[in-house]
Design goal:
Mean pLDDT of chain A: 94
Structural class of chain A: alpha/beta
Number of helices of chain A: 11
Strand content of chain A: 25-35%
Largest interface: A-B, 38 and 38 residues
Largest sheet of chain A: 7 strands, mixed
Oligomer: homodimer
Radius of gyration of chain A: 22 Å
Helix content of chain A: 25-40%
């Protein structure tokens, strides 16, 4: 590990044509910043579910093996044959990982904008954050208020903007309340805080009594457990009370998306005046933004004809609303970083510790409640 | 049967709480037309798939039994217990049937608009068309050019406007070509004529070589057979050539919608320049407008995150585009009624013949190629 900023370690993920995943640390020279650029010493970067897709790809992590040295560990694992087709676009390319992070500006280019950031704590998005140093344009980082730690600023983008993207999508598409699945996640807790603050009805779907308890403690009003025998009735009741006709689903596979649409249809028909063989005319929408369950989505279509299911991603959403609206959302995140948008981590690890099999076994599970933060400048 | 217009027979469909479907003919008085109204002697009304939902509901027509007399036949059938919940909105209500039709104006109200239609052939939509007489507002009917027969004018609305709704939706949602399933249907043939005339790429998915032959004869350019072992490759090739990213699916259940999205994704990635673990950024959409296969929709999500699947119905579409745009589509239908929008029927039946078990066995199958036309004023 270098003590200045001239070179630094960078985590790399490689999938070979032979079907082998290799995760390792590369020592890379830090580019000289251009006039408008800054060099950030990355001190905190979360492992989000959206990072795992690139980090481990379609590899079966139960086959993971450790090699290399303590300072420069290497992890290998097998990618199942059937999943290799989906990996075609990245084969034999050593890819940096890490969507977002925070750190201190240690060197700048000559422009005023760049020099003004010297020594500041900034939040960043743009990939390759699992690295000791990251060079970016000054205008692309978010300057954090004095007194903000790297850990506090590490998750300024993905979860906060995703949660705000959900309430914003709700408004723009004419819905009045929301349903959210895997609702006890970090993101789900954040969404609850936003909805409580903004007065938006939010129906939280969880998969265990323990997860329900997490949400109850932070003041969530509507919590339904999909493992309860009364799930469909409980959900319908909450939908009637909130009027929610839009759901964001992190689970993806199985029957849940269809069950949500079915309960929305039952709720809509409770207020319908005339029979229509096509079902209610109320548009019911589920956006799938995650894939905790990789099985196929199964829709029994017991919910009329006014429905939609689709993929939802943060970046296309931000592109759609444009830079001015996006900036408003980011300003809100900074203003409420220690309250609404506070993230909690269960472990802080170095780059080397990120490659320990015992840690991979935990974070690769994507279990609600477990959340890792990487500090690339922490001693391994 | 009455020889004047004072009373007339009307087909009725009733599902009792006990789980029994009953189809019968009721003798109903024809209301006196108000000043703005006209009385039409219905001479042709098609049995569309969209009519069958109301006509037979969820009944199992293999259990159908005939009773009553030749003049006043009655058909009964059992509704499976599991399907009764979906019928809740219509139980114990005797419902008239028939979305659209054509006939001659035999009596009018006192207004100029109504009187101007006396003796004219008109096309109608609005339900209760499986009847000898139908009273409507003069402004709600479509006057047909002299020399148009009732059979020619019977299907002016559902199929022509649905087919035009598909190309219109394509333009409005920013796609450049279309995919259509069950493509050899009456509707599918019409869509081919529109697309050939308007220069729109159309990929026709059929389920047999015979259906492919029907389309080849009318000049369809892209025809792929979903029962062929090379289906996925054939479809992908056609998608690359046409650039189609929007599909209208009449089948609904099973894997087809997902297969279409998968092939669209493969086609999109053939031109992609950089790897994205979220898949192509090209939005891929399937609208399900029918349910030839009542099984659940199964989506394996091997098509990135930029996708949508949803229900599509003609009437909400017409509401969305508004009356002025809707009128333009109707004008085109009338102008091209004997060419682009010509419908073909395999049988013309009376109301009594509509209730013959041998006929029900044919039209309730919803088989491509079979199409019934009811003439309620034909002798039984």
């Amino acid at each position: 590990m270098s003590s200045d900023s001239k070179t630094g370690l960078q985590l790399r993920s490689l999938i070979r044509k032979s079907g082998e995943l290799e995760i390792s640390l590369a020592s890379v020279p830090t580019p000289e910043p251009g006039p408008d650029e800054i060099v950030v010493r990355v001190e905190a970067s979360p492992i989000n579910p959206s990072d795992l897709g690139l980090l481990v790809g379609a590899a079966d992590m139960t086959t993971a093996k450790a090699s290399g040295t303590k300072e420069s560990p290497v992890v290998t694992a097998k990618v199942p044959e059937a999943a290799m087709k989906a990996m075609a676009g990245r084969l034999d390319e050593s890819m940096p990982v890490g969507n977002e992070g925070a750190g201190v500006v240690v060197k700048t280019g000559s422009s005023d904008a760049a020099r003004a950031l010297m020594g500041k704590m900034v939040a960043m998005i743009g990939g390759a954050m699992y690295a000791q140093y990251r060079v970016l344009k000054a205008r692309d980082v978010l300057e954090l208020p004095d007194g903000t730690t790297a850990a506090e600023g590490a998750s300024c983008f993905v979860n906060p903007l995703t949660a705000l993207g959900m309430t914003e999508t709700m408004r723009r598409e004419g819905h009045k309340a929301l349903v959210h699945t895997a609702a006890a996640s970090n993101l789900g807790q954040m969404l609850n805080k936003i909805c409580l603050k903004d007065g938006i009805g939010l129906v939280n779907i969880v998969r265990s009594p323990e997860q329900a308890e997490i949400l109850r403690k932070i003041g969530a009003k509507y919590i339904v457990d999909s493992t309860a025998p009364t799930f469909m009735d409980d959900l319908t009741t909450a939908l009637v009370e909130t009027g929610a006709t839009l759901a964001f689903d992190a689970i993806g596979g199985g029957k849940l998306a269809g069950q949500i649409l079915t309960c929305m249809e039952i709720a809509a028909n409770k207020t319908a005046k005339v029979y229509s063989r096509y079902g209610s005319t109320v548009h019911k929408q589920v956006y799938i933004y995650g894939s905790l369950d990789p099985r196929p989505v199964e829709l029994n279509r017991a919910f009329g004809m006014a429905w939609g299911v689709g993929g939802w991603l943060l970046f296309p959403f931000l592109q759609k609303i444009g830079p001015a609206e996006g900036a408003k959302l980011r300003q809100r995140v900074v203003a409420e970083l220690k309250t609404t948008f506070a993230s909690h981590y269960t472990q802080v690890v170095s780059l080397q510790e990120t490659l320990q099999l015992s840690n991979i076994a935990i974070y690769a599970k994507r279990a609600t409640g477990e959340k890792f933060l990487i500090n690339p400048n922490k001693g391994g």
